[in-house]
Amino acid sequence: MPRFTALLIWSVFVLFHYPPSLSLRYVSALKNDSTTVIIRPPRAGSNRHTMFLPLFPSPPNSSRISGDVASRRHLQKSDAPRPNARMALHDDLLLNGYYTTRLWIGSPPQRFALIVDTGSTVTYVPCATCEQCGKHQDPKFDPESSTSYKPVECNIDCTCDNNKEQCIYERQYAEMSSSSGVLGEDIISFGNQSDLQPQRAVFGCENRETGDLYSQHADGIMGLGRGDLSIVDQLVDGGVISDSFSLCYGGMDVGGGAMVLGGISPPEDMVYTHSDPVRSPYYNIELKELHVAGKRLPLNPSVFDGKHGTVLDSGTTYAYLPEAAFEAFKHAILKELEGVHMIKGPDPSYNDICFSGAGSDVSQLSKTFPSVDMVFGKGQKLSLSPENYLFRHSRVTGAYCLGIFQNGKDPTTLLGGIIVRNTFVMYDREHEKIGFWKTNCSDIWEKLHIAENAPPQASPPSDGISPTAEIPSLPPTSLPQYIPQGETEIGSITFSMSVSLNQTKVKSQISELSWLISQELHVNSSQVHILDFTSNGSNNYVTKWSITPPKPANSMSKATALSIISRISEGGVRLPDSYGNYQLSDWNIQPPTKRSWWEKNYLVAVLVSILALAIGLSTFGTWWLFRFRQQSGLQYKPVDSVVPEQELQPL
């Protein structure tokens, strides 16, 4: 669930994440130590309850930004407009455990799908020389193919490789996954719909992956945290963008979203809270109160200020409250609910708090579940809708579970992505504040009018290197409308694939292909069905496939369908070389199959029949028993016991 230079100084950090995706990070700079330990929650669907946070504080000399860098940023503060990078977000936080964006590295550009993480300070992708890297969405980065690539040479401020030639990095995670490699510098492109021209930046080129990093579909991590190697810090230090960035996560069943690197003109009704960079190395906020259905929870404001305070983390899936706050929140929610009943959660390993009977329409959830308000330091209030604290039950239609959990015994409050769904969040680092604006993230560009007021483009990067001859197009400014508006449940997804098959092994290769497709689309093998295949001569075949809901469901959610379609349409399916130059095309969605009354209600009919049979047998048994007892109760006198007739008396 979900990890995680105008710059020649290599500061190394020891990060402690605990946990579907990323969790809280704690940074401790240790000079000449390249190991980074990250304790985090597993991805969505795994342990999402207990959060273990940093074990020790930063040393006195562990400032993440050296004095000269901080001074340089202070001098750079200006009201002069700077360009920004508009970028689309993909995937779904609850379904995939993360959101990704697209970056292009090198000349010519090589595309990568990177997990957006405000808790990480390094951006890294798999290197072409990596023999221990997993199979991800895009090909590995090949430094030899980039004319602008430069290795970060060994120096006294970094950990060097064995040959003392190049700086290296390492990241280790508590769920037994890790990433390590070398540091390189190259041109990073943000797409031609961005006002920000390509810039040189330092990034990690992986030589080894283990665990979730090895098996995840995304290529790597895009670090947005506070730190000299963060992509945001590098762009700010170069004077290219203002010291700000923004994220907007799509709502329930929608996924996707948007990201802006650089400043924007904020909406007038944006709600702000102070974010103190000295308070903790994370993006923290001043949460003072929680209200449920307009009623303030009986909590001391200090409950939200324990340890690292209240931390906002884009990489964490759910939200985690200190024990006292969680108990008060849970009881307040339960007290307000009517017309629903509690059911078991989708995973028997955890005691999820789930409710059935609310219906499948997300827009109607507010009629069943109460509103929740977060009150910040100066009394400003951010209202949360039910989609900001609920997630869909994966096994019961129309059922939902609380997406807010107790943070073990840790007093830190951690707010993950579920809290900010359909919320534009602006991380204004220059003014040390974070802004929230409730909106539909699917059409955020039109609402912000970024394109109309775009400032002039920045000058090309220095060092005499041309940015790039060709910048690939970024996805459309608004989310692709893969699924028509109003559709909430999808019956199946069909698509065609042209592929090379050995004529003598067609059946066995079709079976293998079915399994490979299920792995690439992250579905069960029983959901993948071959509809047809025809030969176009030689070994070239056109195959048609169908992806159906997992049994016994009759439909899949819009979010699930969007995730599958995005992988099909954006090159997310990777097959072995033995299948040749395969190509996926002509994808389509099908409505749920219309089932007859008997198919929809056969279980009820069977139960009614059994009940009627039981009642009939019971009635017959009762009648038979009654008759038996009645007959057995009659008394017969023997023949000789009959009394002789008495003589007739004379008249």
TrEMBL record:
Positions of region (Disordered): 57-82
GO BP: proteolysis
Transmembrane intervals: 602-626
Signal peptide stretch: 1-23
PROSITE patterns in alphabetical order: ASP_PROTEASE, PEPTIDASE_A1
Record-annotated Peptidase A1 domain positions: 99-437
GO molecular function per UniProt: aspartic-type endopeptidase activity
Active site feature: D117, D313
Superkingdom of the organism of origin: Eukaryota
Swiss-Prot/TrEMBL keywords: Aspartyl protease, Glycoprotein, Hydrolase, Membrane, Protease, Signal, Transmembrane, Transmembrane helix
Family, similarity comment: Belongs to the peptidase A1 family.
Listed name of the protein: Peptidase A1 domain-containing protein
Organism: Lactuca virosa
